[in-house]
């Protein structure tokens, strides 16, 4: 009995362990999958949410006058799987933390969310279209040189045509630049292959001098052209011709052979030896 009284006193001091619902709002986690909602400003009408919905709770129906389409979410059919939010490319569909989906049977056809999404007109072909959300367009065309304001007013077909025209213009400009380079190459080769004329040589000689010396060089050029022809200077081979001729005659002359001394006889040798002994 004493133990029970201790537990009772502790529980009374701590308070209830459950949420005080319905007296107060119950705690809901931030990532709780509650009721589905849709933002008409971000919806582009692609229909991927309707395609992946497991409970067939999403309905997209164009209006009769063609001004837009009606977007309907049936909450009594939704199974809160979150696939529509996961696959939505523009993040137009979100899931709230509102889990109050209980409703009477006679309200089952009214327990839905109805949104109207209006169409805009394409600036190119005037066809009905949905504009891209600015944040999505900024991510898609972040590294593209296109005009963002013009792209947002074009339908998908006109955007493709504009992109094709831009690519064709860039390719044409590149081809023109390549043709200009190819035409310039033969001219450069011909200029290198053509030998310089006399006039070009004089011009090059004049250009190589200083500005002060150019008039003097220009005056000296006519004088050189009209003056007498200069005689060539004697070369070293012409001056050495007589010496070479004398050396050739000396080589052809017969050389004098010195006479040999007669051999001494044996008698003369003995006579010289006897005289030497004496």
Helix-strand layout with pairing:
Elements: H1 2-14, E1 36-38, H2 48-52, E2 58-62, E3 68-74, H3 83-87, E4 93-95, E5 112-118, E6 120-121, E7 128-129, H4 134-140, H5 148-151, H6 156-193, H7 198-208, H8 213-226, H9 236-239, H10 241-252, H11 266-277
Helix coverage percent: 40-55%
Instruction: Name the structural class.
Output: mainly alpha
The H/E string reads HEHEEHEEEEHHHHHHHH
What is the residue-averaged pLDDT?
76
Task: Extract low-pLDDT stretches.
Answer: 220-230, 232-238
Strand order of the largest sheet: 2-3-5
What percentage of the residues does DSSP assign to strands (E)?
A: 5-15%
**Rounded Rg:** 58 Å
Biggest sheet descriptor = 3 strands, antiparallel
Backbone shape:
elongated
Quick overview:
The protein has 278 residues and is mainly alpha-helical. It has helices at residues 2-14, 48-52, 83-87, 134-140, 148-151, 156-193, 198-208, 213-226, 236-239, 241-252, 266-277; strands spanning 36-38, 58-62, 68-74, 93-95, 112-118, 120-121, 128-129.
Description:
- The chain has 278 residues and is mainly α.
- The protein contains eleven helices and seven strands.
- The chain has helices spanning 2-14, 48-52, 83-87, 134-140, 148-151, 156-193, 198-208, 213-226, 236-239, 241-252, 266-277; strands at 36-38, 58-62, 68-74, 93-95, 112-118, 120-121, 128-129.
- The strands form three sheets. A three-stranded antiparallel β-sheet has the order 2-3-5, with no helix packed on it.
- Helix 7 (198-208) runs antiparallel to helix 8.
- The N and C termini lie far apart (182 Å).
């Amino acid at each position: 009995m004493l133990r029970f009284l201790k537990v009772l006193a502790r529980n009374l001091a701590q308070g209830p362990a459950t949420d005080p619902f319905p007296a107060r709002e119950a705690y809901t986690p931030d990532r709780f999958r509650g009721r589905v909602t849709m933002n008409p400003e971000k919806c582009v009408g692609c229909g991927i949410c309707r395609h992946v919905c497991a409970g067939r709770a999403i309905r997209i129906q164009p209006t009769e006058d063609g001004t837009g389409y009606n977007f309907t979410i049936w909450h009594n059919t939704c199974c809160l799987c979150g696939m529509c939010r996961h696959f939505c490319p523009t993040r137009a569909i979100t899931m709230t933390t509102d889990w109050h989906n209980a409703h009477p049977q006679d309200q089952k056809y009214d327990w839905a969310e109805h949104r109207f999404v209006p169409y805009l007109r394409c600036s190119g072909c005037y066809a009905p279209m949905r504009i891209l959300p600015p944040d999505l367009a900024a991510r898609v065309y972040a590294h593209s040189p296109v005009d963002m304001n013009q792209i947002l007013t074009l339908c998908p077909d006109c955007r493709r045509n504009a992109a094709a025209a831009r690519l064709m213009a860039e390719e044409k400009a590149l081809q023109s630049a390549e043709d200009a380079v190819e035409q310039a190459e033969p001219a450069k080769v011909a200029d290198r292959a053509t030998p310089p004329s006399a006039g070009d040589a004089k011009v090059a000689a004049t250009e190589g001098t200083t500005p002060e010396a150019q008039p003097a060089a220009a005056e000296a050029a006519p004088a050189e052209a009209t003056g007498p022809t200069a005689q060539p200077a004697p070369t070293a081979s012409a001056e050495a011709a007589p010496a070479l001729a004398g050396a050739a005659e000396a080589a052809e002359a017969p050389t004098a052979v010195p006479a040999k001394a007669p051999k001494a006889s044996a008698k003369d040798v003995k006579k010289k030896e006897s005289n030497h002994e004496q």
